[in-house]
Amino acid sequence: MLPLGNIIKKHNIDFHSYADDTQLYISVEPNKTTALQSLTSCLSAVTHWMSNNFLKLNESKTELLLIGPKDKQEALLPSLGNLNQYVREQVTSLGVILDSDLSPKPHINKVTKTAYFHLRNIAKVRPFLTKPDTEKLVHAFITSRLDYCNALFTGLPKKSIEKLQLIQNSAARLLTKTRKMEHITPVLAELHWLPVSYRIDFKVLLLVFKAVNGLAPCYIADALSSYTPARALRSADAGLLRIPDAPSKRIRDSAFSYYAPRTWNALPQHIREAESIDIFKRQLKTYLFNQAYT
């Protein structure tokens, strides 16, 4: 993929490559279409390079997503030219469904539908399975979907989190054969399952720990910076992160660069200073478990 990356760089376009999936990113104003011309030229160059190397661009999987206010999207459409054929209302990026508002609703709806489908199938064979075997199925088909890219779920409305929590509750009832009328919180605690909202924080904090210790990709590490007090204070050596000013409550509650340092700074210092990732995960789960159930 190195030659392909060089072609894209020549057109001054940002991109990410994942195996055979390449994503291009440009920022454009409706009245300034230079970036669109660069994108069109880039796609032509990519198509030409692939043709010369006996490859073919899969146009059926080539998609374009416009992100921004609806009025600006509509104003931009006439300038897209041949790119109009690739415009989609939703796209799937590494298994996560994105729309033009970057709303999590389409993805959560998909997760919910798929999870309940698998729960119904597991329920059919539950009478023939032991509890350990059932738990393996639950983690493979349900928990894995709740946890996948769940760091993106920070700042979601309570209603959306509850939708995901109901999936976990149903999985716990199926596993333990708990009746619907019985309270589910003690069951989750007995299973040592963190509730969905705490699982989200666990993933966010794990990413922060990796970034602080040089184990995360640069695009995650670059979103964080160490806290440096104006005067010499004990907090200078506490492993705290700087919390930037947020232009709105919505961004403060959802953007990684705001939410992550605030959540990190709230951790006890001994957890932030864990000597290894395994120790950190163990201490963090214990801390969040106590927060959730005590």
TrEMBL record:
Official protein name in the record: Reverse transcriptase domain-containing protein
UniProt organism field: Coilia grayii (Gray's grenadier anchovy)
